[in-house]
Backbone:
């Protein structure tokens, strides 16, 4: 009976130790666990393994799929916006422009001419009158700017229309209605079209002006360019002649004034000579 009692008491003590291990959470450091493992007295061997809580795998999979779909949808939306913008603003306009230039647009011919505005009267007259003319007509820079405005002006357009039928020359060829001139346009629209078909530039360093005329026929572009140069030359000659006339008029006025002064001076000298010779009477001397 004594043996049975001791066994029962030992079993009761063992059950109590196991219950204490189950119900008590003992926190130990890594060094203590390592030492107990070396000595063979590690309580972790006696402690039962706790069952992990059951997890809902389906819920995790659905959550991950939703997160992944949201990230992919944002990327796809951004890429769709970028691709749509590229197609709308780059690909489509470039394709339409290429198709128009290759299959629809008519051929254009450019006629170019270079010239400069120079004053030759100033260099050939070294006298005082030449100095005046050099001061008045030697300013070729202002004449060049006047000429540029004249070429692009309504007056030049009217002169060109007197000799050429611009509506016929610049009429639309085939389906090219973009670069063609419509019939019956008002003067403002004609002037805008003329400025698009003609170009003139001025180089300040060299003083050379470059003229470029566009047309659908090479011969017509050359003829229009020649006519524009002729009208420009006539304008510059008129400006030069007007300047010369103005200078001559001012010089003549100065000459008349000097002659009047000289005549008055001669009269004064004669009166003074008469006084010296005693010819004067009446207290005039």
Residues:
């Amino acid at each position: 009976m004594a043996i049975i009692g001791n066994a029962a008491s030992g079993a009761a003590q063992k059950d109590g130790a196991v219950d204490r291990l189950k119900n008590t959470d003992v926190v130990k450091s890594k060094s203590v666990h390592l030492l107990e493992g070396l000595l063979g007295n590690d309580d972790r061997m006696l402690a039962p393994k706790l069952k992990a809580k059951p997890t809902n795998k389906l819920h995790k999979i659905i959550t991950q799929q939703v997160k992944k779909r949201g990230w992919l949808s944002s990327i796809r939306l951004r890429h769709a916006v970028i691709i749509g913008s590229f197609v709308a603003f780059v690909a489509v306009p470039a394709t339409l422009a290429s198709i128009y230039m290759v299959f629809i647009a008519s051929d254009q011919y450019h006629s170019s001419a270079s010239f400069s505005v120079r004053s030759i009267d100033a260099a050939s007259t070294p006298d005082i009158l030449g100095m005046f003319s050099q001061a008045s007509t030697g300013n070729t820079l202002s004449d060049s700017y006047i000429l540029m405005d004249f070429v692009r002006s309504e007056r030049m357009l009217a002169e060109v229309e007197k000799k050429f039928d611009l509506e016929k020359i610049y009429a639309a060829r085939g389906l090219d209605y973009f670069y063609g001139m419509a019939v019956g346009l008002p003067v403002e629209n004609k002037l805008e079209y003329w400025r698009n078909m003609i170009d003139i530039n001025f180089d300040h360093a060299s003083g050379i002006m470059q003229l470029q005329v566009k047309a659908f026929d090479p011969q017509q572009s050359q003829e229009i360019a020649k006519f524009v140069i002729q009208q420009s030359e006539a304008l510059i000659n008129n400006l030069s002649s007007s300047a010369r006339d103005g200078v001559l008029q001012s010089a003549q006025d100065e000459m008349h004034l000097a002659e009047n002064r000289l005549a008055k001076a001669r009269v004064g000298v004669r009166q003074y000579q008469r006084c010296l010779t005693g010819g004067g009477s009446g207290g005039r001397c």
